[in-house]
Specification:
The two termini are 24 Å apart. The strands form four sheets. The protein has a seven-stranded mixed beta sheet with strand order 2-10-9-6-5-3-4, sandwiched between helices. It has a three-stranded antiparallel beta sheet with strand order 8-7-12, with no helix packed on it. A three-stranded antiparallel beta sheet has the order 11-13-15. The protein is built from eleven helices and 15 strands. The chain has helices at residues 18-31, 39-52, 65-73, 89-95, 141-151, 202-211, 233-264, 292-295, 299-308, 339-347, 359-370, and strands spanning 8-9, 56-60, 79-82, 100-103, 126-130, 154-158, 166-167, 170-171, 178-182, 195-199, 270-272, 279-280, 286-290, 311-312, 348-351. Bound molecules: ligand T4K.
Amino acid sequence: MLQENKQITVTSPLLPDLEEFNQLLREIWDSKWITNNGCFHQKLEIALADYLKVPYISLFTNGTLPLITALQALRITGEVITTPYSFVATTHSLWWNGIKPVFVDIDPTTCNLDPNKIEAAITPRTTAIMPVHCYGRPCDTERIQEIADQYGLKIIYDAAHAFGVEVNGESLLKAGDMSTLSFHATKVYNTIEGGALVMHNEQVKKRIDYLKNFGFAGETTVVAPGINSKMDEVRAAYGMLNLKQVDQAIDARHQVANLYRERLCSVSGVRFFDDMPNIRHNYSYFPVFINAEQYGMTRDELYFKMKERGILGRRYFYPLISTFSTYRGLESSSLNNLPCAVKMADSVICLPMHHGLTSRDVERVLDSIIK
Ligand code: T4K
C-alpha cells in the first residue's frame, strides 16, 4: 500500500524484539512450566512493582478481571458511585458482582468523576466509589479520599489508562484502596492481553492471589469462591521485554502530543488537554473535543471525513455507558444527571496516538483536521 494511503489507526501495539522473545520462549519450552505462578510471572511482578513504584502488584489475565476481583476482595455490595464516561468494563465489573452502579457526572476539565457531585449520590446502600483516571489523567484523589473517609466508603480506581503516571514523583496507583491496570494490546504497556491489581499490603496481595487462582490457599484448601485469572508464562515473558522499552515509547508519544498541540492550538473549535503540573503523563490517548459551531463541522462529520482519508481516530468514550441497554433504566442514567458527560461524549475524538507514528503520519492527521 502506498505510504500516503496507509491507514493510521488510533493505536498500534508496542511489540518486543522477536529474536529476544524467541529466546525466552525457548527457556519456557525447556522448563515446561507454562502457567500457574511460573518464573516469568514472578519476575514480572517484581519488575513491575519496581517500575511502577508500588509495594505490591498481582498480575491478571486482562484488565477487567482485576476490577471484578477487587470488588470481591473488599466485599463491596449495594451501590457503587462511578463514571459513565469510560470503557464499558468499568461498569460491567459492578454488574457481574450484583452491585448497582450509580452514575455521577464528570468534570469537563479532566473527564473524570466530579468530586463536587459525589456526595449528593451517596445513599445508605453506597459502599464504594469506582473512579477512572480517564486517558491517564489523574482524578482528584485527595478530595475523593476525603469523601470516602467521611462516609466510610472504599475506593477502587480503574487505572487501566494510567500505567506509569506519577503525581509529584509518586505513583498515582497508590491512591485509594486498590487500583487496576490493563495491559491490553491497545495500551501504553501491553502483554497482548493482561492486567494487574495494585494494593498496599501483603495480606491483601495474598488474598487477591487466592482469588485469582480459584480461591486456593494451598493444595487442598479453598478459602473463597475464586476465579481463574492467572497470567501465563508466555505473556509474562513478553511483558518483561516490553517493560524495557516502555519509557522510550512514552517519550515518543510525548513528542506526538507536542506536535498535535503546536498545530491545534490555533484551530478554532478544537479543544485538547494540556499537561497538568507535577504530573508524569503517559500520553496514552490524545482526545480532542469539537465545538461544532466554532469549528464549522460536527464531531461526527469530522470523524467520518478523517476516516475517508484513512485516519482512524476513535470516539472513546461515546456512547456513554449509561446509555447502553443494561444501564439506561437506572435513575442515575438520566441525561439531566450527566450534562458534562453527555457533552464530552458527543464531542470527543481520540486522535491516533502511539510510539510508531512518524512526523509525516502526524502531519496527515493534522491535515485531515485543519485543511
Ligand atoms: N477499564 C478501562 C477504563 C478500559 O479502557 C479498559 C479497556 C478496561 C477497563 C478493560 O481492560 P481489558 O479487559 O480490555 O484489558 C479497546 C480495548 O480492547 C480495551 O482494552 C480498551 N479498554 C478500550 C478503550 O479499547 P476497541 O474495541 O476499541 O479495540 P479495537 O480492537 O477496535 O482496537 C483499536 C485499534 O487498535 C485498532 O483499530 C488497531 C489497533 N490494534 C488493536 C489490536 C487489538 C492493533 O493495531 N493491534 C491489535 O492487536 O477496545
